[in-house]
């Protein structure tokens, strides 16, 4: 379980965008995993099993009405006070990820960020492998449109015929 902790934290942070909420989700995931440890098949990789627990907890949290909270800006500036050159791109990417539908965002983060196979991502999300593949394809296309300045990823890129 401890070996999976850094990946769980990274995925939760990417999924939620807020450090304290991500830490809470990881803690809840580890607590639930510890309680259900007997249901884990020791021959299987623990990572997809824990990510499935995290996914289910995340879905449950999204279904509950949210409490109004005021958070502090958690961004830590470098000593000089200057922003890194690629900081704007990172903020754009994070904002674009937030605009993706939840299923596409979750699938994209598991496969790209967490380097899970399609089968492992399917197990973690509780969906067929074909669904992972289609969500990944649609998510990548929508993310590409958003990063290129598309209108909130409203649809496929328009193509024009050149003769």
Structure description:
This protein is an all-alpha fold and 163 residues long. It is 61% helix and 0% strand. It has helices spanning 5-16, 19-35, 46-63, 87-99, 102-113, 118-125, 129-147. Helix 2 packs across helix 3 and helix 5 (102-113) crosses helix 7 (129-147). It is globular, with a radius of gyration of 18 Å. It starts with a helix and ends in a 16-residue tail after the last helix. Mean pLDDT is 78; it is low at 67-87 and 151-157.
Strand content: under 5%
Described by its quaternary structure, the protein is single chain
Q: Tell me, briefly, the overall form.
A: globular
Q: Please write the string of helix (H) and strand (E) elements.
A: HHHHHHH
Quantity of strands, as a count: 0
Q: If you average the pLDDT, what whole number results?
A: 78
Number of helices: 7
Low-confidence stretches: 67-87, 151-157
Q: Helix share of residues?
A: 55-70%
**Rg, Å, rounded:** 18 Å
- Main sheet record: none
Brief characterization of the structure:
This protein has helices at 5-16, 19-35, 46-63, 87-99, 102-113, 118-125, 129-147. With 163 residues, it is an all-alpha fold. The model is unreliable at 67-87 and 151-157 (pLDDT under 50).
Which keywords apply here?
mainly alpha, globular, 0% strand, 163 residues, 7 helices
Secondary structure: elements and pairs:
Layout: H1 5-16, H2 19-35, H3 46-63, H4 87-99, H5 102-113, H6 118-125, H7 129-147
Helix pairs in contact: 1-2, 1-5, 2-3, 3-6, 5-6, 5-7, 6-7
